[in-house]
Amino acid sequence: MTSQRNPGMSLCGSFLSDEQFLCSICLDVFTNPSTTSCGHSYCIDCISKYWNGSTIYQCPLCNKTFPKRPELQINRTLREITNEFKSMIGVGNGTRGGGAGGRGRGLRGGTARHMGEGGGIPKDLIAELKKRLPRATQEPSLPIPCETQDSESVPPTPASTPLASSVPNQTMIASPISPSENAAPPFYLNRRRFTMIGNEISTRLPVCEIHHRGIVIYCKTDQVCVCPECETEDHQGHDTVTLEDEWMKTKVQLSESEKDVKEMIRQRIQKIEEINLSSTEQELAVERNTAGSVCLFSELVSAIERSQAKLMETMDASRVAAALQAGAMKRQLELELEELQRRESGLAELALSEDYIHCMKTFPVISSPPPVKDWSGVSVTSDLGTGPIYRSLAAEVEKFKEELLILAGTGFADSALAPSPVPYQPETMRVEDYAVDVTLDANTAHPRLLVSDDMKSVRCADRHQVVPDNPERFDRVVCVVGREAISSGRHYWEVEVGRKTDWDLGIARQSIKRKGKIEVIPSNGYWFLSLRNRNNYAFRSEPSTSVRLDLRPHRIGIFVDYEKGQVSFYSVDTKVHIYTFNDTFTECIYPFFSPCTNKSGKNDMPLIITPVYMKD
Q1: Residue 482 in contact with residue 472, Cβ under 8 Å?
Q2: Burial class (CB in 10 A: 0-12, 13-18, 19+), 482
Q3: pLDDT for res 407
Q4: Do residues 366 and 350 touch, judged by C-beta distance below 8 A?
Q5: Mean pLDDT of 127-149
Q6: 54-69 burial, b if ≥16 CB within 10 A, otherwise e?
Q7: Is the pTM of this model over 0.85?
């Protein structure tokens, strides 16, 4: 329970409090006090033990850091005053109060007993304190309440927290109302004070640790917050204002600073999003380019492998053909040799014969030259037939180089897969960019051929039709040419061959021979691909070049680049390049079609010129 303080004690409480003689570490009256350079005092043993084992030396109250451990000296004046205070309240110089709680009650009780029941104040005590504590007669700072044994759980009572009067001998009337447990303590109780368990942070007006007065002044010169007495002692002549006024001025800048910080936050969030987006795009680009490059180089390797296989086949065929040619020439030479040797023997016999009549009859027959061939300019063909294959591969490699140069600058597009060095679409353009509408010229069709009304399909009939014998009509070769002449540029069309067993497709020169027996080879103006007996594909080159197709195409694409002198064939079904002729065109050329004979109904299906499907 709290008790009413004697009115006679108010004067003493107004300028003297036991809190002023307490060490903030041990919470007891000073023993050999020592004062740091920041103005705070502690028992010399307490502050020494507090710093022992530390590498950073700070004041426990204000947290000021010292560059090195201070050399402590006993504050003799404060020790004398503390000893005098101890003698006044009846505490021995060498004894402690037994802790914060016991000490607090003992000090307060001792003070009351020393003053007497009537609350009288010894005059010698007032004189001594006026001499040693001159600021005690000035306007007192905010008083510090007396601590109880459990200062955190028991709120201070009016008796233990008097408001000091500014006039000596003025009495203090205690409040008749005791604060409840939930009531907030008076504002002057909220101060920052160091204890062994940490700092108690004031949520209201902070108190100067030196003068125990409220910190309400801001020094612009030193940029520190001080109390009025600090301003008088340490900041005379400085530019000072009230703390509230300075904060109101500073607060104006708050919104601008807040905007600046928000803008910096927004920029960094945006940059993080940009980095995440760039990282995602980079991963997609890696995946896209990996797939594209694998496809690109796989097609090149496939093209080289196909060319190598063609070379092996062509050279093997050339070897067999050369061996057959050499064998035929040898047999003919051996026959001629036998005939000549036989005549040589006959002439030798005539020279020894004496039958003049027989000699005269036989000599003209034996002596006449036999029907032999002039072998002076004859030799076995040395051409292996690999030239067209090498030229075709060189063209494909050149296209591959062009693709690489384009990809070096642009890379693979988002929606595009890797282009092939031997693409299904000619060059690097899309098929539809070269597609042309090809129709058949019925005036050139062989009499056995039946051309549809839309001029888009042709098949072979069983017998000849009654048609005019035009100069441009073929009369021996079962074929027909298109109406559209090609004299420049690039052109592409597709023909449905279905499951026919035989056919010919390609181009023909305008001045080709159309009557009688024709040798369909490039030197005579024909460049086309042939199918015979369902599985035998060949190009009518010199000599004929066989080609192996793993999958039988049902639609053939023909591409012509007039300026480059190229005729290329593609399997539309598998999107595979089959073959490319390389030559020089000096006149108009026309699409060439031959459904071949119907083979007694086995090959009666038509050749159909189909539209080129537009691809996105």
Answers
A1: no
A2: buried
A3: 80
A4: yes
A5: 43
A6: eeebebbbbeeeeeee
A7: no
